[in-house]
Amino acid sequence: MSSxxxxxxxxxxxxxxxKTLGEGSFAKVKFARNLVTGDHVAIKxxxxxxxxxxxxxxxxxxxxxxxxxxxxxxxxxxxxxxxxKTKIYVVLEYVDGGELFDQIAKHGRLQEDEARRYFxxxxxAVDYCHSxxxxxxxxxxxxxxxxxxGVLKVSDFGLSQQVENGMLHTACGTPNYVAPEVLTAKxxxxxxxxxxxxxxxxxxxxxxxLPFDEANLIGLYRKIEKADYRCPPWFSSSVVKLLARILDPxxxxxxxxxxxxxxxxxxxxxxxxxxxxxxxxxxxxVDAVFNESKEHLVTEKKERPESMNAFELISRSQGFSLETMxxxxxxxxxxxxxxxxxxxxxxxxxxxxxxxxxxGFNVHKRNYKMKLQGDKTGRKGHLAVATxxxxxxxxxxxxxxxxxxxxxxxFHNFYKSFSSGLKDIVWSTGSNTNDNNINIxxxxxxxxxxxxxxxxSLSKILAILT
Length: 466
Hints:
Strand content: 15-25%
Shape: globular
Structural class: alpha+beta
Radius of gyration: 23 Å
Low-confidence stretches: 1-6, 158-173, 318-333, 431-435, 437-466
CATH superfamily of the largest domain: Transferase(Phosphotransferase) domain 1
């Protein structure tokens, strides 16, 4: 087994770090396992030097403190915070149902009852946050996660703000979802602006596309300021009336959450959240991390190499097909994919580089990871794509591609050309080859790691699936 194509086990405190779940400008989110309890978590790893350089210490501390104070079944839970000399580790609840965005990408618009159920959970979470004086300010489907039971979890409080009284003055958030008053230089009410964003989300869930969308920002802002949108014919009259109250450009007359909670359309099938509220939440670990207390420092320990295990392979494979990962509905596409290849790892890396460079991408390689950085500025900056090669057996590799920057639709256009250049290395899974591929995997599965420390190898899983 090639030593370069497998990942080193990294341990931080009582957690074993696994695959990358997401990546941003200042942090990565990694899958991890609590070695004491066996529970799965997500760990946000923040580079200390970068946040110091960009003077973002207070923003990061606010985000972490805010999330620790919010304990609600529809808000992503923050368990603890740790730090090393170079990194900050934020231990979060792990949810495995993906983003609400993915539901739209996969199925297109949702049925009214399903959209209402998600909207009810969203309003429950936002109502609770507002009762604690916390305003999210960047609500959108990409920041709404789902667990395996379909329970919605609000995440990413990087732009949240906690205020006692008064108005907010910082214009932030994603343009298509922000309220008109946020676009002006005047102060705005955080609660009213969050409600507007909830209305845009409800529209997207039921329509499958944005109510306000223009190629240029000036045109977009004009539509938002006038609340210039049209509901599609399949919207019921009740939801049309509710949206008119939510997407009211005047924040003073816009519907409030208490009024939403009394709305007939909203109340259909409504189930109030039931949870135990902790009386006291300690921020001692947050203070220790940002006060650079040496007593609370943890260290990263690299242990023996580990190949991708059976559970990871099944969860990532999606049939080992590039096409199934990019279902296109109303302009929405997924922002990550993976494929299997029987080519050597070095050949895969060379092919990716050979395909990306003529498309105007700068390539940065490190071990069996590669970052592709577009040289053209798009709607949301430069398109950036991260790739990583895993060895799952001596003659089989899994390759992940993930958008880390830029516009999702531009990523889709990139993919269409990029994937055609990779056809020679992608393991085909046509209907005539599926059985053969499964048989090959069964033979190779003896070399796969088991998951959850149980005797359940890939061959046993595949036996159940077939």
